[in-house]
Amino acid sequence: MKKTVLALLVAVSVSGCASIVGKATDTFAQNLGNAVLNSEDPATVRDGLPAYLLLLDALIAGQEAGDKSNAGVLLAAGQLNGAYAGNFTQGDAIRAQRLSKKALDYTKAAVCLNDADLCLAMDKDIDTFVSIVNKDTNTALMYSLASSWAGFLQSNSEDWGAIADLPKVEALLLRVVALDPNHERGLPYVYLGVINSLRPEALGGKPEVGRAYFEKAIALSNGKNLYAKTALAQYYARLVFDQELHDQLLNEVINANPNANGYTLINTLAQDQAKQLLASGKDYF
After folding, report:
1. Based on C-alpha coordinates, what's the Rg of the chain?
2. Which of 45, 78, 116, 128 is deepest in the core (most CB within 10 A)?
3. Residues sharing a CB contact under 8 Å with residue 170, sequence separation 6 or more, in sequence order
């Protein structure tokens, strides 16, 4: 789940980043978002993000508590911290946990400024949570919460207490796609694909449902989202031991042109991951 979910956070972070700089100028916000998503060099993004993390921390520290206009800053901080935690803290589990918790805390604070019912639901039992989520209509806020929560769960995958919240993440994503099937260019379907492909069918997993979600994400992007193909190989094809599909998908990703408006960064990350998966697949199958 790690590479897929956390690389997606890079893409999700752009809208949050835009919301903060957009207070200065909408043009700069748009240009910054495009620059991140269309970067061919993840290392440049990695080296540049810490400056924005510190800037956002400083802005949040100076905010007046309870001011709803601060929600955009909190969402930006949540998504950027999550993106950095997931993609650029390899080998440092403690740092990943710290940053992903910070990301989730910021996002939850934004939720509580904008959506009182969802705020109260977060700590409720799953049935109550689902009931409240299914009445909510704020797709952007629910998706931000789901993505930050997923990143936190991944960095704390050994904590069964934390993992118990996974159904809440799924409930949020299902509500988002029910309201807006094209939200974030189909990225919620990749999350749903991963969630349903974590376990074999004999242990309660739903791999065929997961495959359908991955294929939906690929279709919505007109094949431009290479990460959806990488995730389909990693989580579905490996789970059902379909080496032919696994290798076919990964070779398609490796040989594809990663440059596509809005997808270049995650496609570049996908190609790096695909090469690793293809090499390790020789021992897996």
Report:
1. 18
2. 78
3. 192, 195
Quote the CA–CA distance of 181 and 269 in Å, as a whole number: 24
CB 86 within 8 A of CB 100: yes
| Among the listed residues 249, 9, 188, the one whose alpha carbon sits nearest the alpha carbon of residue 106 | 9
Q: Cα–Cα distance between 180 and 170 in angstroms, integer?
A: 15
Q: What is the pTM of this model?
A: 0.85
Of 125, 233, 118, 231, whose CA–CA distance to 176 is shortest?
118
pLDDT for the residue numbered 26: 41
Tokens coding 227 = 């990460």
Burial pattern 61-88, b for ≥16 Cβ within 10 A else e, equals: eeeeeeeeebbbbbbbbbbbbbbbbbbb
Closest CA to 135 of 166, 178, 102: 178
Query: What are the DSSP calls for 217-246, one per residue?
Result: HHHHTTT--HHHHHHIIIIIIHHTT-HHHH
**Span 50-74, average pLDDT:** 78
Distance CA 176, CA 33 (A): 22
In terms of Cβ atoms closer than 10 Å to its own Cβ (0-12, 13-18, 19+), residue 126 is middle
What's the pLDDT at 29? 42
> In whole angstroms, what is the distance from residue 7 CA to residue 183 CA?
17
CB 111, CB 123: distance < 8 Å:
no
**What is the C-alpha to C-alpha distance for residues 23 and 218, in angstroms, rounded to an integer?**
34
Q: How far is CA 7 from CA 3, 64, 180, in A?
A: 6, 32, 22
List for the chain the helix, strand, coil content (%; round to 5): 80, 0, 20
